[in-house]
Design goal:
By secondary structure, the protein is mostly helical. It contains two helices and no strands. Belongs to the PsbZ family.
């Protein structure tokens, strides 16, 4: 269970770095939001689900 928890934390950190870089870049480019809206919304939804999953896994690990 600890390995799943650590892997989900790692994935959350990597996804957070991706979103920190990608959102401003796509928002600043001329057609960036229109072309990449679905990718950013899916990544944001996955980030939200990961936060909730990590919260649930936290009770199993501790």
């Amino acid at each position: 269970m600890l390995l799943i928890f650590q892997a989900s934390i790692l994935f959350l950190i990597l996804l957070s770095f991706f979103l920190v870089v990608a959102v401003p870049v796509f928002a600043a480019s001329p057609n960036g939001w229109n072309e990449n809206k679905n990718l950013l919304l899916v990544a944001s939804a996955v980030w939200t689900v990961l936060v909730l999953v990590i919260g649930v896994l936290n009770y199993s690990v501790i």
